[in-house]
Amino acid sequence: MAKTNASPATTRRTGTTTTSKASKAVRPRARTATPKLPKAVSIAIQAARDRKASDVVVLDLRKAGGFTDFFVICTGNNPRQIVAIADAVRETLKKELGERPALSEGVDRSEWVLLDYFNFVVHVFSRECRSFYALERLWGNAQRIEFPNED
Questions:
Q1: What percent of the chain lies above the pLDDT cut of 90?
Q2: Is the pTM higher than 0.90?
Q3: Where is 124: in which H helix or E strand?
Q4: What separation, in Å, do the N-terminal and C-terminal C-alpha atoms of the chain show?
């Protein structure tokens, strides 16, 4: 029996179901293999999701010949939320890892904020701007890792 990441002390995995000792419930568990991401990228994703960023996607550009290793792409619903997401990513990475973006662009217009951390770039888009630039299509040869919207 292999343990899952959810609650190592109380959860066991058998086949395709998860059994919790505490509740004795059996639930199907999705098998999605998410590649291990660098800590800074994971922190950026969580900071964006904490500010209710939607449609969060990571493009792994290491094998695609990109100028950086990862793109973190997400969408904000309005200019205020776009700035809040970018600020949360910037502040969380500074606080937890002491990392600051080498470049920060787009905060004035709040349609597309770009935070460049050299090894990865965070893109916070408005829905219209994300659709127009279509980075996921442009970098179609990159591995795509999706993070479902939280309810």
A1: 60
A2: no
A3: strand 120-126
A4: 31
